[in-house]
Write a structure and sequence with these properties.
This is HTH araC/xylS-type domain-containing protein. It comes from Sediminibacterium sp. KACHI17. The chain is 64% helix and 0% strand. It is built from twelve helices and no strands.
Length: 276
């Protein structure tokens, strides 16, 4: 974008006007309204594209990975949130104070901009760049079914005539082979065990169980932890020890999944059992 801008300046000054227009007073045109509007439009386009990519990535992760929370890049989500706030503040200034060259009247815009910049920077530094998860997981041969896996509507149940049979097969993989204990379980692994493709497994889970792949696997993991707590194993092992054995790979993911399923934290559940 900046290369295009400098090219326009060069062509205009050298061939069209044959005089220095953009810098004739020794100043950039940064504060001209047309320049600010084009900058705002450019940022809006990039933000829209970024939000679409992240939404698609997030949907695909939950549709194909049992460990989606660990590869969602929360720092990127916070960055996009700050980006939205930045554009919102800029739009507000277009309305309240369009005279961009008046620094004195715009001090709080620059303070807001600085605050958001520090927020983005600190989140970047705090992010753990080392990841135990291989990005090759998302390169498994499921790309041909991506659009179907992340679509909001996968078609009526009658499109899968063997739905009940397939549901039972998937359930057996969980109860007998305990595939959910694999912390790196993907929908491709389940599909391979069933001798089918990822798209069909996604449809079966969505239509048959009413949830996405990630939630389906975490349901089994939570039930496994609860069974062990009820059996008294909590006296010889920590809650997180039970969670890791069940296939969870982080405390935050386990707590979030447990709270969503049981409407209480793991500690609250253990305390409740202890009082009985």
């Amino acid at each position: 974008m900046y290369l295009l801008y400098t090219l326009i300046i060069f062509i205009s000054d050298q061939w069209l006007t044959e005089e220095v227009f953009f810098y004739k007073d020794g100043r950039d045109k940064d504060f001209d309204l047309w320049y600010q509007l084009l900058g705002f439009l450019s940022l809006t386009i990039y933000l829209t594209a970024s939000l679409r990519v992240y939404k698609k990535y997030k949907g695909l992760s939950y549709a194909t990975l049992s460990f989606a929370d660990s590869v969602l890049f929360k720092w990127a989500e916070r960055f996009l949130t700050a980006f939205v706030l930045l554009l919102g503040i800029r739009l507000l200034f277009f309305i309240l104070n369009p005279e961009w060259a008046e620094f004195g009247r715009k001090f709080w815009y620059y303070l807001s901009f600085s605050g958001l910049f520090y927020f983005i920077s600190i989140n970047g530094y705090n992010n753990n760049i080392r990841s135990a998860t291989s990005f090759r997981i998302l390169e498994e041969p499921i790309h041909q079914d991506t659009s179907a896996l992340i679509s909001e509507h996968e078609g009526p149940a009658e499109q899968i005539p063997d739905l009940e049979k397939r549901k039972e097969q998937i359930s057996l993989l969980m109860t007998e082979q305990k595939l959910y204990e694999d912390p790196l379980l993907t929908i491709t692994i389940v599909a391979d065990r069933l001798g089918t493709h990822s798209k069909k497994v996604s449809q079966i889970i969505n239509l048959g169980f009413g949830m996405n792949f990630n939630d389906y696997i975490n349901t089994y993991r939570i039930e496994s932890v609860i069974q062990k707590i009820d059996a008294g194993e909590i006296s010889s092992q920590t809650i997180m020890g039970l969670a890791y054995d069940a296939g969870f790979n982080s405390k935050s993911t386990f707590n979030r999944a447990f709270k969503r399923l049981k409407n209480m934290t793991p500690k609250e559940y253990v305390d409740k059992k202890a009082k009985k």
